[in-house]
Write a structure and sequence with these properties.
The chain has 15 helices and no strands. The longest helix has 50 residues, at 2-51. By secondary structure, the protein is mainly α.
């Protein structure tokens, strides 16, 4: 009898923990992939900081930040919209091949447009940002092409719930950057072009390595490219402005401090350290968005509100701890790991950490807006935030003060607009849920 009770208890715990195990089985590989990608980025920048002169390091770090804007900032929209449409069709038993074709077409068009912009701005980038290195302009173009492919793959993998392959794209991108840069350091071949190409080819190598896992699905009803383009456009607008606000300040600061490359290089190093939480929470939309969307589609405002509160609690807890850490250790870490030539103040480090926390809050709110089918509001909020950001960033004051002020003010504007919109959306959902039982008998 005692053994039977123990068996029943064990079975009960097994049933209760089954959903947790299932979630860990999907989240775990993605977390490992993100860790590899984050380690690679910091290791590459650390190697470059020790191997290159401050002016050359600032140019390579600016390439890294620009890639972060045109890669995740724009092509994440292709991933999210592809994910949404593929998962929806699979749930309905409809072939996904038309979605794959439309998404591939849109990704190619977006890549061509970005390459055209890079070429158009190449004279400015060459002289003011890349330190006269044409190789970094070419590396930017290579990175754009790679991002167009790998983010399309990720959208397919996430929509099909094949998180092992999703994680493989992250890990392959990290290793594709890390291994060549380590080889450059070991062989004593460090150069601006070497680090630039090694970093830029990461996404392209990841796309090639994981291409065998792509499954485009069976034929099905047409996926109108115009409808997909609208969703991709609105998401890309919001995500692109998010990454612009998150990463552009060091690029502009470098261009404004051409006579003081030591301070520019040190700010870039400290800035990158402050952005560390993005590497661990940057793909939370892959899991957060489906959960919020499911609650919104079921007309369950309580569950939606609860999920948002949990996500905000996690983000605030981790973000504020990271901000305190970067305030206490950031200047020292920038000097030790990136060979920063100047020690900037702990106040600057702490404020940059707080700005990162604010940006993570906007990501949670943006996922909620997408779940509530209010794409346009997300783009509008980021447009307002970007306007404030650019106005402060180019203000005729000390460039360092301008950069830090812009990083703090812009996300707070976005949080205010998004927070109000999310509150209104949940309120409308609550009203609809209350009226639904009354509408049924009629």
């Amino acid at each position: 009898m005692q053994s039977s009770r123990h068996d029943d208890v064990g079975y009960g715990w097994s049933v209760l923990l089954a959903p947790v195990r299932a979630r860990l089985n999907s989240v775990g590989p993605v977390g490992v992939g993100l860790l590899l990608l984050g380690i690679a980025a910091y290791a590459v920048l650390g190697l470059a900081g020790h191997a290159l002169e401050p002016r050359d390091y600032a140019a390579v770090a600016s390439l890294y930040l620009l890639i972060a804007i045109v890669g995740p900032g724009l092509f994440i929209a292709v991933e999210q919209e592809t994910n949404r449409q593929v998962s929806s069709r699979i749930a309905a038993g409809i072939g996904t091949l038309p979605v794959a074709r439309s998404a591939a077409t849109l990704s190619a068009i977006l890549a061509a447009a970005v390459v055209a912009v890079v070429l158009l701005l190449s004279p400015v980038l060459l002289d003011r940002v890349f330190g006269g290195s044409w190789s970094l302009v070419i590396a930017t173009i290579v990175a754009v092409v790679g991002a167009a492919a790998v983010y399309l793959w990720r959208g397919m993998f996430a929509g099909q719930r094949r998180y092992g392959w999703y994680a493989a794209t992250l890990g392959a991108e990290g290793l594709g950057r890390l291994v060549p840069c380590l080889a450059l350091g070991v062989l004593g071949l460090a150069s601006v072009s070497g680090f630039g190409y090694a970093f830029a080819f990461g996404a392209l190598l990841a796309a090639a390595a994981t291409f065998p896992g792509v499954r485009i699905g069976e034929p099905g009803p047409a996926a109108p490219i115009g409808r997909m383009a609208r969703g991709v456009g609105l998401i890309a607008g919001a995500s692109g402005l998010l990454l612009l606000v998150a990463n552009l300040a060091p690029v502009v600061l470098t261009s404004r401090l051409t006579e003081d490359p030591e301070t520019a290089a040190s700010f870039v190093s400290l800035f990158v350290l402050a952005r560390l939480p993005f590497f661990f929470l940057g793909s939370m939309h892959a899991f957060l968005l489906p959960a919020l969307t499911a609650a919104a589609n079921r007309g369950d405002p309580a569950r939606l509100r609860s999920r948002i509160r949990i996500a905000l609690g996690i983000v605030l807890a981790l973000g504020l701890v990271a901000a305190l850490g970067v305030a206490a250790l950031g200047p020292w870490a920038a000097r030790v790991f990136f060979d920063a030539p100047v020690d900037l103040s702990a106040l600057i480090a702490g404020l940059l950490g707080i700005s990162t926390t604010a940006l993570l809050v906007t990501q949670v709110l943006q996922s909620a807006l997408l779940a509530l089918d209010t794409y346009r509001t997300a783009t509008t909020a980021w447009a307002a935030g970007a306007a404030v950001f650019l106005g402060l960033l180019f203000a005729p004051v000390d460039p360092l003060v301008a950069a830090v002020s812009a990083q703090l003010a812009a996300p707070l504007v976005v949080i205010a607009i998004m927070g109000l919109a999310v509150w209104r959306g949940i309120h409308r959902l609550s009203v609809s849920a209350q009226l639904a039982p009354q509408a049924g008998p009629r």
